[in-house]
């Protein structure tokens, strides 16, 4: 262990209590172990969330924010990929209870703030639920945010146009993994698989569309890809990753100064 460590689990219990205060922020990366087509590793979401959170914590700590990196949570709510061998997932209620118990444990320290950095879309609504539970039960300030890697190709500058539907194993995620761990990306990329019929709807859809719907990834094709990985490249991945680090670091700075009134 070095004096400069920002890893929660590098410290002993007494050292953690001595090093933290009610202004400290516990940063929890959360991802998933799930099918990402035939070309990306099962740990894609975990890899991205951990890398972004690690870089952001280092950056804000250098600027005086007392942020601490907790171990990454890999098993998550990935039932949209239940059909695919290799996916390791738990029921939403199981994950909810685990996150509540992690919050309860954090509340046993001087730390009063927790921030989840999430790399998997299937966790988003659950984390919103968790934020309120941790506030109500333990008085923690609780926040959740994406890792910034959920970017769809817009058809400009050589990027594929994913029609806002590049949500899984498409251009964005594939590019980021090419940047972070190129040895984990298969040489042959699967073909474009953008659900154009859904993209053409006004209200029903992903992301910003106001009407949600139940789906599993094989509803859109046997590969489980929703997007267009064919134009992915490491340089775009670097830019997406760096933008994600910028976003999370800026969010942590705001969280550091956040007050309810």
Automatic annotation (TrEMBL):
- Name the residues that span the membrane: none
Q: Which UniProt keywords apply?
A: Hydrolase, Metal-binding, Zinc
Enumerate the InterPro entries for this protein: Creatininase-like_sf, Creatininase/forma_Hydrolase
Question: Carries keyword Transmembrane helix?
Answer: no
Q: What does the record give as cofactor?
A: Zn(2+)
PANTHER family linked: 2-AMINO-5-FORMYLAMINO-6-RIBOSYLAMINOPYRIMIDIN-4(3H)-ONE 5'-MONOPHOSPHATE DEFORMYLASE, 3-DEHYDRO-SCYLLO-INOSOSE HYDROLASE
What the record says about family reads: Belongs to the creatininase superfamily.
- For this entry, the protein name equals Creatininase family protein
Q: What is the organism lineage in this UniProt record?
A: Bacteria, Bacillati, Actinomycetota, Actinomycetes, Micrococcales
